[in-house]
Amino acid sequence: xxxxxxxxxxxxxxxxxxxxxxxxxxxxxxxxxxxxxxxxxxxxxxxxxxxxxxxxxxxxxxxxxxxxxxxxxxxxxxxxxxxxxxxxxxxxxxxxxxxxxxxxxxxxxxxxxxxxxxxxxxxxxxxxxxxxxxxxxxxxxxxxxxxxxxxxxxxxxxxxxxxxxxxxxxxxxxxxxxxxxxxxxxxxxxxxxxxxxxxxxxxxxxxxxxxxxxxxxxxxxxxxxxxxxxxxxxxxxxxxxxxxxxxxxxxxxxxxxxxxxxxxxxxxxxxxxxxxxxxxxxxxxxxxxxxxxxxxxxxxxxxxxxxxxxxxxxxxxxxxxxxxxxxxxxxxxxxxxxxxxxxxxxxxxxxxxxxxxxxxxxxxxxxxxxxxxxxxxxxxxxxxxxxxxxxxxxxxxxxxxxxxxxxxxxxxxxxxxxxxxxxxxxxxxxxxxxxxxxxxxxxxxxxxxxxxxxxxxxxxxxxxxxxxxxxxxxxxxxxxxxxxxxxxxxxxxxxxxx
Length: 498
Prior knowledge:
Blueprint: E1 3-11, E2 25-33, E3 36-37, E4 40-49, E5 62-69, E6 73-78, E7 91-98, E8 105-112, E9 127-128, E10 131-132, E11 134-137, E12 145-148, E13 154-155, E14 163-164, E15 169-172, E16 175-177, E17 180-181, E18 187-188, E19 195-196, E20 201-202, E21 209-210, E22 217-218, E23 225-226, E24 232-233, E25 240-241, E26 247-249, E27 253-255, E28 261-263, E29 271-272, E30 279-281, E31 300-301, E32 317-320, E33 333-336, E34 347-349, E35 356-361, E36 366-371, E37 376-377, H1 398-407, E38 411-413, E39 424-426, H2 429-436, H3 448-496
Parallel strand pairs: 12-14, 13-17, 14-18, 17-19, 18-20, 19-21, 20-22, 21-23, 22-24, 23-25, 25-27, 26-28, 27-29, 28-30, 31-32
Antiparallel strand pairs: 1-2, 2-3, 2-6, 4-5, 4-7, 7-8, 9-10, 11-12, 15-16, 32-33, 33-34, 34-35, 35-36, 36-37, 38-39
Helix pairs in contact: 1-3
């Protein structure tokens, strides 16, 4: 029979307390017969050596009869007795035969003994200076509790699958600190005075509690509580996430409602949710988006606030709202500066308004309106025209500008999306662009700066033409006067000669 071991690995099932676990460990391997996975009952012989070839057995030879091999896989228990695994490197020489028949066939090469069996020597590892450092509590469910760290750490009776990785203290600064798990599958990674409940997790820190019905998490920090199912406190101090799916971080952030997300700054005062599914931020220094200098401004992002006055918030404020109505009821954006809920909002914008879609106001009234058709209504439009803001000045030929204006069609018309009787008078952008080609406009738009400048230049050109015409007229009139004077003199002289 040709057989060989392809893969072997070791598992150790330790019992608590460790001094009662015994010296046996479980060996698992794979057996092939003529290149195919073996099946059936085999006898296995194990000899322990301190070298990978030759040498003398380091422990009694073990023969495990009638080991079941299924699809090449087998598991068997090995017990070489006490005092064997003291840190020395070992190899297993394995032999096999079929169903108790014939001689054993040696399987080559010897198998190195991986570290797991050396855990047998850890019978004293649970004690450090005579204090318990690690306890494994077995249970009938096959889900042991692992309790590490201080001996005052504990898992409440009757619960399974709990883990306390470390932390806790019998005496630290004169006080005792206990990490505990009070329900199934809870985890405390470390820190002190931390408690985890059903499927809950506390990463570390001190005085933190994960006590939700299930799957609550506290990452760390101090005196934080995650009390809702699937709730999270990543850290900070004195935070509460007690609503299901809630989140609280910072200092005294209190997510008291389902789905609430609360972020609080360093102020020593509670900042609490007031309804389900809120996203709240307290930032005394301001909230900055694409800026690190918000200058104390606050930002509030809300849902549908119909009927709720904006002055219930801090000033100045920016409010975004979901809406399909016009300005005045539920705007998409409202910026209020000391205006309350009067029409004096500094800026109100409605995303889908049917009338004015944007309004700018002072403390008493809106003074600039932008209609949904693009019409801008205001008292005055003042454009920057400071000489100091300009450069590359070029003298114009006003007569040429006038000639181009005269040649440019100016008609009466209406916009296609307006009523036919909503008339306007003006040139087409294409004609304006072709005539002047200014960079402030393209062939679809006319800049108010350029349109006004062209008009003024044309007026100057017209004035020049008028001045020239008047000069010619004056010259002609002067010449006519001279002729008239001569004619009158001739008439007078003729009369005197009669």
